[in-house]
Amino acid sequence: MVACNETGSSTYVLVCEHASNYIPREYGGLGLPPQDLERHIAWDIGAAALAQQLSSLLDAPLFVSGYSRLLIDCNRPPLAPTSIPVRSEATEIPGNRDLDEAERERRAAAYFWPFQTRIARALDERAAAGRPTALLGIHSFTPIFLGVQRPWHVGVLYARAAAFSQALIARLAADRALVVGDNQPYRVTEEEDYTVPVHGDARGIDAAGIEVRQDLLATTTSKGVAEWASRLAAALSDLQPGARAG
User: How many distinct structural domains can be found in the chain?
Assistant: First the structure.
């Protein structure tokens, strides 16, 4: 994992769980051809660049996972069926079939828990120092999923932090050209998500996932990333998130 701008002054702490498509050589690409490891099934395309620019604009700490979600997903509880997927979208993952418990535990110990422990430590340190904190997971999503077109340009995903998330949605939706998803294209659940429920909701701090459609980020230049980082920074800077009652 990589920690960036850890001493940043922002209320926000950023997490990018699906930043990388890297799989150590010993896993043989999990039996997939190289072109599949460039697809969304392996990582959130454009999310790392977006998170880095947003970290800079907000002066926010950022924690980035350095491994593909196909190896083990850093935004899934280790016991979730999708933690180490045997199928992603319509693609079978040969290297994840029939894993024994020892291999699952080995992957969690090597790739999942170090990432989560580092985030938890940073949040503990902020709490001990009395610093107000809100947590944001930075993601991207595909324009088409299993043949279905997705209309949203950006989505805000949340569970308990409804007031904060609705305020963010309203600020983004003030641009009438944008279609903003309210818990779309995904929903946060305790069974299938980790960052928002564990690092955010369980601590009583505002927490949400931000999903930007990949075709708006994955351009031939960095223009799309810069535009979205600026748009999100402006919307987030208008808010005053932090601890929640209850």
Answer: 1
Give kind and range of the element (H or E) at residue 91: strand 91-92
Largest CA distance in the chain: 51
- Asked whether the beta carbons of 107 and 224 are under 8 A apart, the reply is no
Q: Residue 81: which domain range? A: 2-237
Residue 243 maps to a domain: no
Low-confidence ranges of the chain (pLDDT < 50): 220, 245-246
Cis peptide before 185 (omega within 30 of 0): yes
Full 3-state SS string of 52-90: HHHHHHHCCCEEECCCCCCCCCCCCCCCCCCCCCCEECC
178 within a domain of the structure (yes/no) = yes
Tell me if 244 is assigned to some domain: no
Q: What is the CATH number of the domain that holds 147?
A: 3.40.630.40
Q: What is the dihedral of CA 71, 217, 170, 159, to 10 degrees?
A: 0
Rounded distance between C-alpha atoms, residue 173 and residue 162, angstroms: 16
Does the residue 43 lie in any domain? yes
In single-letter form, the type of residue at position 143 comes to: P
For 102-135, how does the pLDDT look when each residue is reduced to its tens digit (9 = 90+)? 999 999 999 999 999 999 999 999 999 999 999 9
Flag whether the pTM goes above 0.85: yes
